[in-house]
From TrEMBL, chains A, B:
PANTHER family: LACI-RELATED TRANSCRIPTIONAL REPRESSOR (PTHR30146), RIBOSE OPERON REPRESSOR (PTHR30146:SF95). SMART domains: HTH_LACI. Pfam families: LacI (PF00356), Peripla_BP_1 (PF00532). This is Catabolite control protein A. The gene is ccpA_3. It comes from the Bacteria. Keywords: DNA-binding, Repressor, Transcription, Transcription regulation. Residues 2-56 form the HTH lacI-type domain.
Amino acid sequence: MASIKDVAKMAGVSVATVSRVLNDKGYVGQHSREKVEKAIKELNYKPNEIARSLFKKHSNTIGLIVPDIMNPYFPELARAVEDTASKLGYNVILCNSDENKEKEQAYLDVLKQNYVNGIIVSSNTLTAEQIEALNIPIVSIDREISKGLPTIVVENKKGAKAATHFLKSKGRKRIGHIRGTAGVVNAEERCGGYREAVAEEPWFTESYIVNGNYDMESSIDATRELLGRHPDIDGIFAANDMMAIGAIKAAYQLGKKVPEELAVIGFDGIVLSSVMIPELTTVAQPIYEMGELATTVLVNLMEQQPMEKTYYTLEVELIERRTT
Amino acid sequence: MASIKDVAKMAGVSVATVSRVLNDKGYVGQHSREKVEKAIKELNYKPNEIARSLFKKHSNTIGLIVPDIMNPYFPELARAVEDTASKLGYNVILCNSDENKEKEQAYLDVLKQNYVNGIIVSSNTLTAEQIEALNIPIVSIDREISKGLPTIVVENKKGAKAATHFLKSKGRKRIGHIRGTAGVVNAEERCGGYREAVAEEPWFTESYIVNGNYDMESSIDATRELLGRHPDIDGIFAANDMMAIGAIKAAYQLGKKVPEELAVIGFDGIVLSSVMIPELTTVAQPIYEMGELATTVLVNLMEQQPMEKTYYTLEVELIERRTT
DNA sequence: ATTGGATGTGTAACCGGTTACCCTTTTTCA
DNA sequence: TGAAAAAGGGTAACCGGTTACACATCCAAT
C-alpha cells in the first residue's frame, strides 16, 4: 500500500504538503495541490486511518453495546446506528454484552483501548460512575442509567397505560400483565403504567401481574400460571412483543382463541409483530428513529457541538392489529 | 491515560522491558518483571491498541459485511461471528451493504484503511478480482463468490430437493415454488433442487415457479399470482422463510387454510420460523455454526495456520412443524 | 522604500507502541 | 580456565500519519 511518503515523493513535495491537501487545511499553492492530487489518484492512495487515529487520539469509530443482537429489538437499532454513523463518517464496532457486568466492562475497556470516539449502550447493569470513569462520550438507549447521562428512551409508562386502556376500550373486563425482567427500569415503568390503568378496578389484585423475562419461553410459563390463577382473564398486556407472542402460544396450548377469548397487546413494535400470524397489536417504539437520534446526539457530543438537550423521551404509538 | 512510558518510569526500567513483559517475549529478569507488573497494576495501564496496530499493520479487528442486519437471517450470524471473534481476541466492525456494489467497495476500502485483519462477507455483487485486489483474508458466507475463495455455504440444492420431496410424502399433489432473488446463487440452487424433485411429475411446467425477492411483500404477490394460475396447488416450497411467511399470509387472504388446504415449507430456519403461529416447517441452516466456522476459518487464514480445507458445504436439517 | 501580514512549503517532533541491534553480565561446558 | 552461549536490558528506529515551527516570498499599506 502506498503511504503518504510515496505520494510526497511522486508529487515532488513534502509529506506536510500532502497532508495539507488531504485535510484541506493550511496554505497550499495551486500548483502543488494539483501535483499532489495527481499522485494520489495515480497511486490510488488512501490514508492510513490507524496512523491518523494514533495522532488524533480517536479512531472515527463508535462502539455499540447491546445485550444480544439476536433479540429482535436490536437489529433495527443497530441498523439505524450503523446507517447514521456511516453517513457521518464513523465505523461501528458491535458488542454483545448478554447483560453481563464483566463482559460490559471488558468491552468498555477494549473500546477505550481502541480509541473509539463514543459509545452507544443499552444496559441496566452499568453505573454512572463506571461511565464517568471511562471519560468517553456515551449515550444510553432504551434504558436509563442515570438522569444526568445522555439518554434516548420512550414513554414507557404512558404507553403501558394506553395499552391497558385500549384493552378496556375493547370491552375486556379482566386484564392481566406479564412483567418484564425484574430490575430493568423499563419493565418497572411499563408495569407502573399498567397499575395506574387498573388501580381503580374493583377486581384488581397483585395476582394479576406475573413475572416474565422479556423472552418467549418465560412468558409461556407465566401466562399459563396467570390463566390458571384467573381463568376469567380476557386481556393481557405483555411488557414486550416476544412475551406477547409467548402469551399467544400459551393461549393456543390452553385452547383459548386469540383474540376472541383472549386479547393480547405487546410493546416494542419489533418487525416480527407485523409479520406473525395473527399480526400482533402492540405499542410501537420508533426504534429506527431512536437509533438515529442516539447516534446524532452522540456525534454532537463527540464533536463538542453545543446542545440544548441530551435526554429524549420519545412518543410511542399504539398499532392495532389482529390480536385485540 | 497512562502510557508505556509512565509505566517504564514508575518501574525504573526502559519501555522495551515493559513491552517485553506485556508481550511475554524476550528475556526479562524476575525482578524487573515484578516491578513492571506492579506499575501496570498501580497505573491501571492498558496498552493502546491503535499504536500497536500501527506497528503491527493490523488492528485485531474483523469486518462483517452483510446485506442488512434487519434481515432476520443475519442477527444470528452476526452474533456467532462476534462471539467467536471476541473469544479469539478480535473486534467486529458491522457493515450493511444493501447488496449495493458501491457501498460494498466503499466498506472494503474503509476496512482496509483501518487495518482489519480479515473480512467476512455475504454478498453476490462482489467479484473474485475485487477481493484479490484487496489482498486481505476474506471468507464468504451463505453465498459463493468463487470456487477458489474460502466459503461457508449449505447444501442448498439437496435441502430444496428434500423440502419438495417432503411435501410429496405428505400427500401433496401439486407443488409450487417461490424462487429467491434473481441472480443470487443460492436462489438458483434451491430452485434447481425443486426442479429435480418435480421433473418427473406429469403436471409440472415452468408456470409452477414464480419469482420472489427473498422478502415477505414480494412473496405475497407472487403467491397470489401462483395460486391464481394454479388453484389446485396444495403445497408450496418457498426459497426462504420470509417468503414462506408471505405465502401463508397470501393464503389467509385468499381464504385458504394452512396446512389443511395448502402446506408451506420454508428455508433458512430463522428464529422467526419457530416463533410465529403457526410454527413454520422449514429447512434449517445451521446459522450459528456457519458464523462460528466462518470466523475460525478466517482467523486461521489471518494467522497463517495451515489448513486442509477452506470451502465448507454444511448439512441442512428439515424441521417439521405446523405448516405442513 | 519599508514593513508587516498573508501565503507557501519543508523539517522534525510527536502520537504510543514494537523490536532490531548492541552491550553487559551470568551460566555452561569442553 | 576460558570461550561460547544464554540471559537481561537499554537506545533508537520505525509504523504512517499531523502539525508546530521556521523560513522564504509576495503584496499592500504607510
